[in-house]
Each structure stands twice: as C-alpha cells, then as structure tokens.
Hints:
Strand content: 15-25%
Largest sheet: 8 strands, antiparallel
Helix content: 25-40%
Structural class: alpha+beta
CATH topology of the largest domain: Transferase(Phosphotransferase), domain 1
Shape: globular
Low-confidence stretches: 1-5
Number of helices: 15
CATH class of the largest domain: Mainly Alpha
CATH architecture of the largest domain: Orthogonal Bundle
Number of domains: 3
Number of strands: 24
Radius of gyration: 23 Å
Distance between the termini: 42 Å
Amino acid sequence: MTSLALDSPAAVAEEASLAALLRCCVREVAGPRGQVWHAEPYVLLRVADTLLRVRTHGGLALRFQGPPEWLERGSWQPLSADLLVRLVETELGGANEEFADQVSMSRGAMTALLAVRRDALPPADPWLASEQGLVFGHPFHPSPKARGGADWLRYAPEAHASFRLRLLGVRHDVLAEAGDTGPLDDLGTAPRGYSLLPAHPWQLDLLAAELAAPLADGRLIDLGHGSHAAVPTSSVRTVYEPRIDRCLKFSLDVRITNCVRKNSWYELAGAVELTRRLEPVFRELSADFPGTRWLPEPGYRSAGLGTRLLEGLGVIIRTSPWSVCRPGVTPLLSGALAVPGELPAEPLRWWRAYVERVALPVLDAYLTHGVVLEPHLQNVLIGVDAAGLPVEAVFRDMEGTKLVAGRHDLSGVPDRVAEALTYDPAGGWNRVLYCLMVNHLTEIAASLAGPGSTRELWAVVQEVLAGYADARGWPQPLSDLLAGAPLPAKANLSVRWARSADRFAEYVPVANPLAVLS
C-alpha cells in the first residue's frame, strides 16, 4: 500500500479501486469457481492460486472493514490494486491488454476528483449536490471511474463542474426532431429559418471535423454560448439547464465505464415513443402506489446530416425532478444515499417507507403492465419530506426502460426502434431483479446497517413484498423471489474483460438475502 497519508486523494482512490475490483473477484472470478469461503469475520478467496482475505459486513453488498491482504510464504501482507490486477490477468488467461490500463485510469480519475473536490463548492440545490456525489462509482465494477477523452475533468459532475452549453442554429430543411421540443426554443434566439439546438461543448470539440462543412455552408450556424450555466448530473452527459427547468441528455463520444455514451438514432425515436406509451401506465401506478413519479422524455431534436451527426448532435429533453415532486418534497439521488453517512432517527420506519416507495411500483410495472423499469441507483430519485422520510420515488431514463415482448402492440413502430424498446419476459425479469434487489436495495440496506447485520432490514423487505404478493395472488416470479431463489448479478468485470458491448453483459447467480428468512 502507499505510504501517503491515509486521507490523501491517492490513498483513498487506491483503497476504493482495490475494494471495487476485489468485490468483482468475489462475485465473478473466485465465486463461480467455488473459491470463496466465509470464516468470520473474514471472507477468503483464491485468485490465481493466491489466498486473499478481508473483513466484511453489509451482506451481499460486501462492504470491507480494514485492508485486504494476501498470503505470502505463510504471512499476511497488504494487498494492492496492481497486484490484484495481475492475479486477475493470470486467473483469466492474460488475454486483455487494456484491462490494467482501465483500472489504472479509473484510479487516477478518482484521485483527480478527490483533489478537486477539496476546494470546489457543491451546488446549493440538494438534488444537484446529490447527483454530483458519486466519486467512487459502481461498487461492483473493476474500473468504475474509467473515462475517455482529455478534457473530462472540466465536465465531471463529481468535480462540481458547471458550464454554459453551446448553441447551434439548425436550418429548417435539415432539422430532425419529434415530440415536444418547444422548451429548447427558450434557450436563446435563432435567426429566421433556423431552430435552436443546444450542444454539449465537449461533444462539439469531439465532432469538430464532421461539423466543419455544415458550419461553412450554413446548414448549421454557431450561436455562441447559452446564458446560464448547466449542471452535469451523475451520468455525465445529462445536464440540468436552469433557464428552462429541463434535463438535457446529450451524446458523448467517449467511453464512460462500460459504454461509449451516445443517443443512437433509434434511441432518440424510442424515447418519445416510450414516453407516449408510459403516460397511462404511470398514471395507474401513481393511483395504486401514491408517491410514484417519473420523468418523461417528450421530445428530441437534432440535425439530419447523416447518422453520425444525427446521433452526435441529438439531444433528448427530460422533465426535471423538481417539477414532478410535490411542494415540500426534496428529490435526492438514490446512489448518494448508498454512500455511508448519518443514519435516520428511526431506521426501520425509514427503510419500510423506502422499500414501499421503490420496490412496489417497479414490481407492479412488470407484473401488471409488462413494463421493465431499470431502478438502479442512478435511475431513481427519492423524494423526502421535511423530516427526511421517503414519501416519493421518481423513476427516470427511457433508455433503460423496456416493454415486455408480446404484451404490447408495436405494429407501426420501425423494427429497429421496436427491438430497442423490448425485453423478452425472462430477460426483463432478470433486469428488474438485478437493478432492484442486487444493485439498489442491497446497497441501501448495507449503508443503513453500517457494520451491523442487515437481517432485520431484509425481514422488512420480505414483509412488504409478501403483502404485495398476497394482494396479487402470489404470481410465480414473486413466489420464487420470496422463497429465496438466487438473484442475478450483472457481470461487469466479465464484460470489460471480454471487451463486449454492455448490452451483452451476462449475469452470475448470487445469494438471495431473503433465503435465510424463508
């Protein structure tokens, strides 16, 4: 381990990087090979014929207490992230020359973010402050803060960045849009014959070569910068624009964790189509589960200048959370709540309210309406009242929301758009279980329990879900879940090792925290 002070950015980043990679090893490398053992207070695992150990708590979330170690000639030594990378490479066959660089890049990004945050002021808006609090990223990802591009720090939400958008004019004969795009026109003034198109300044730099010709011949014009600073949210490419009280989801042709983040042409069309179809669904969900909210994506705008620029300049308009939460309710990113902090005064009451707000509409969306929400920690906002009690859950991001194939009439929808809008029933249920149970509730429960047991918290989950199952006649998927069937966990290390697209990520089975209660 480093000799730097324990609170130095480099040391903290090393600790976080090591912890994330070690969790992946337990879940995806040693676990499936039968090379993980529990010997309280340690978890032991073997990677590349090397025995490792670490003190744990938090159940399935695998929170670590104290430094991980490896056994060398009969003596336990501190484990480093670089050594663990070498062990993983040996265990998996050493066939990915990018892997070590990605882990190193992620650790370097954390170091830079921690250093900048020492002097940067967070937004005064509590929702935006929560969006910008995810310094360490996904706890089960080998390179959670890997980020391409040279200028990423200028636009990083974790660095408390804010910046003015660039404004383009799109000549009407090459304008591409659908749905309600009117709010974009309030960002500035476009000359006659043009429509206003906001653009992420980082993306414009990345597209400079492709933009040269349409800017030269007048199909596009550069209108300078917007008048207000936009604030990047947790996904990096989605920003909040205060002048129009909307979130704007841009393309960014850089890799962020697993994916190059862009709005594919079929996703632009799909966001508007899905918003139209989900409106009556969420109306029913809100009636059955008071406090259920969502953020529609009613329109997109771009320039019809070939697929590259159509996608690269495409912007999806998203409703802001402040406009859907009722007065007196403050939206907060669930991912920020998964970071250990102060416990609520009545943790079990808080937890029951949380589970009821988040879990029940997600399950009912699938079982009753054939809709797969993607309620991972970055896609859910929790609306808390003045006392901090969860009273609303806000679901967002149409890219991850899908329709269950065979339960919706998609005739008339272009084939590629329809394909991107659907999951088969089994795939949809796996996505729901992973996002809700493994990614979301497990992490919040671990933060709520601290170093203590999560058993009492999972007993509350069991009671809430059993009550819902009883009211719905105990459908088979819920019966299996409550009986303790293993849960699917997304294999982030495996997909990075294979250098596959994120959509091809597989799942590995993990223990269901409800099993010990059955």
